[in-house]
Every structure is written in structure tokens, then in C-alpha cells.
């Protein structure tokens, strides 16, 4: 009777989506003066042909979507170590703090993994990929594993953000020095609808400087963070379900070539993490790039046709909470000026017209919404994060930029817009 009751309980937990991986014996490692906590999840049925996965997370380990992924990887035969460095260090979870991590915690984990005498695969995503590359280099230089990678079968980066944040919107982002200093077997998984899709050639060139073996994987019709999203599309849900089997295929095709040796740069150039400027920032005037995009109704707009009035050009996405938060203040701003002299034009990043139409049923937007379906216009304007905005004068010159959400109907901002209008009465 107890056995049947236990089976029924397990069934109900699976049915209600509550069946998550169970921790094995977690352990800690010393990294200088810090202690790193390693959370372990053992395979349901161990498979000696599967490598150990070492996943450096960025604050999403408690999400149900991630727990579900870990469970499916365990069911596929993978043992997993999960590490949250910021949590181990008791550091506030900010983009700047992540970018400042030196990677010694990663190196300590990889050194311990090498001692297990089994293949392992470090994994990370987003900004944490930067810290992973730094840590791998430190481990390579300190432990000198055979051929430069030892038991490390591969490194997997999901939609990596390896850039030093630009100081202001419109500045071209630059890679941190670790990218070109790295030398390792690496697989980059980039969603086709991701922010840095058009930056992949730059990334490959940088990684090739010191002879990394780079494998690129494109996941079609999904956004960054697709397997962690709480509002995933049906396509993203299917891609998430396939990730477990896809990972096995990616690892099998990206094995280091025979006789390949990896040697990272020994002297790593120093780079200060950029502090992004806030608010409306005056910039040296430069021409706004022209573009032609369709709105949600399929009507084409040529941006140069707006010449002759001051324009607020706003790049945004409906999945970006700060983008949505600033829309009411933009509506109020538009009402404050003569439509013949000032207009707001928004460019949505890679969402379908139907999804935006659905969004507009819930959120009032009193200005045109254009669709940057392939992301090329956003790339032309060097959009690094959302929202990003530009104030463009009547002569088509970019005069101000904003790299975050703001209250657009602030009196000081309205005065600056009025000053631009008066320059071309």
C-alpha cells in the first residue's frame, strides 16, 4: 500500500509540474579567501559516455524553467554541477558586478573537475560567459592541462554577452580583452532572434586570435534566454524541449581536432568596466542612418521622410519591462508638442506584427511602431540594450542619446526638445 501511495505521489508531482531534480551531496571549494558552493545533481541513470556538465548560472537557478531543464538533463544521463558565483560571494546581482569578476572561482571549480578524471563541459550564458572565459584561462595557465584542455571536452556559451557596456547609446560595444586572449574548444549557441546575432562574425574573429576552435550553433526563431523564459512562445517551448538532445549533438560535432593544442595569452590586457552614463546625454552631432521599415499594418516608412521635425527614435521590445514602463511618459511627451515639429518613432526589435498588435490591445501607444524583423536597423544604430533612444534634430543629426528608460515628460527634457525645435523654426 505504501509503495502504491508513493507512486501516486510521484505521479501527481510530475503531473502538476513539481517534479524537480533532487540535490546530491553539495560541496564547497576554496578560491583564495572566498568559498564557492557547488550544487550537484546526479543523473537518474548514470551514463559513463556523458560528460559532467558544469553550469555557471546568472541568478536563474531557482526558476522552474531551469529546474525542469536540469531534471531532463539528469534523465538523459548527465551529472551536473551548478554554481552561482555572486551568491557564493554575497555580492549584489548587477551587470557591473558580474563583469568585474576575475574568474578565479571558475578556475577553482575546473581544477577540481579535472581531478575527477572524467570529461567535463563548462556552460554559461549571457554576461557570465565573460567570467567563464576568464576562469578557463586562469585554470589553463595554473594547472597546464594536457594540450591546453585536459578533460575539458568543450565549452558551451549560450547567447554570450562578452562586451564592455558602451558608455552611451549608439557607441559601438567593444569586447573585453579576454575574448581574443582565449584559446579553447568552444561552442557558441546563438538564437536567431537574439540581440547579438549580427555580431557573430566579430566574435569568431576575436576568438580565433589565439587559435580557439569555434563551433557556431544557430537556434531558429527563438530569443535569448529562450529555455528560461516564463513567457516563451510555442516555438521557444519546442526548442527548449529539444535542447537536451541538441546538446548531445553539439558536443559530438565539436570535439577538439586531433593534435590540436590550446594556449591562451599569458599577459591579459587590463580593462575597466565601463560605467554607463544615465539620462539624456548630449553627444557630438552625427547623421542618423536612414532606414526603411514596415509598421504593424504592413505600411512602409522611410525614416528620411521625417526630416524637417525633431524626432525621438526609440528602440524597444515588448518583453522588456523598462521599455513598457516608459511608454506612458512618451505618450504624454508627444501630446506636449506640435505634431508638425516633433514626433516619436519607435522601432520594435524582432517581434512579429501580430504579437505587437496583441500588445497594443493592452498598452496604449500613441506613436508609430515599426518592426525591425531581422535586427539590422538596430545593429546599424549599435543598439546594445533596450530601451535605447535618440533625439534627432530637424536636419537629421543625432544630438542626444539615452541608454535606459526615463520619464520622458520631465520638464528639463521637454526644454531640451523645445531648444532643438527652435533651432529650426
Automatic annotation (TrEMBL):
<keyword id="KW-1015">Disulfide bond</keyword>
<dbReference type="InterPro" id="IPR017937">
    <property type="entry name" value="Thioredoxin_CS"/>
</dbReference>
<dbReference type="InterPro" id="IPR000866">
    <property type="entry name" value="AhpC/TSA"/>
</dbReference>
<dbReference type="GO" id="GO:0016209">
    <property type="term" value="F:antioxidant activity"/>
</dbReference>
<dbReference type="InterPro" id="IPR036249">
    <property type="entry name" value="Thioredoxin-like_sf"/>
</dbReference>
<dbReference type="Pfam" id="PF00578">
    <property type="entry name" value="AhpC-TSA"/>
</dbReference>
<dbReference type="GO" id="GO:0015036">
    <property type="term" value="F:disulfide oxidoreductase activity"/>
</dbReference>
<dbReference type="GO" id="GO:0017004">
    <property type="term" value="P:cytochrome complex assembly"/>
</dbReference>
<dbReference type="InterPro" id="IPR050553">
    <property type="entry name" value="Thioredoxin_ResA/DsbE_sf"/>
</dbReference>
<keyword id="KW-0676">Redox-active center</keyword>
<feature type="domain" description="Thioredoxin">
    <location>
        <begin position="282"/>
        <end position="422"/>
    </location>
</feature>
<dbReference type="GO" id="GO:0030313">
    <property type="term" value="C:cell envelope"/>
</dbReference>
<keyword id="KW-0201">Cytochrome c-type biogenesis</keyword>
<dbReference type="InterPro" id="IPR013766">
    <property type="entry name" value="Thioredoxin_domain"/>
</dbReference>
<protein>
    <recommendedName>
        <fullName>Thioredoxin domain-containing protein</fullName>
    </recommendedName>
</protein>
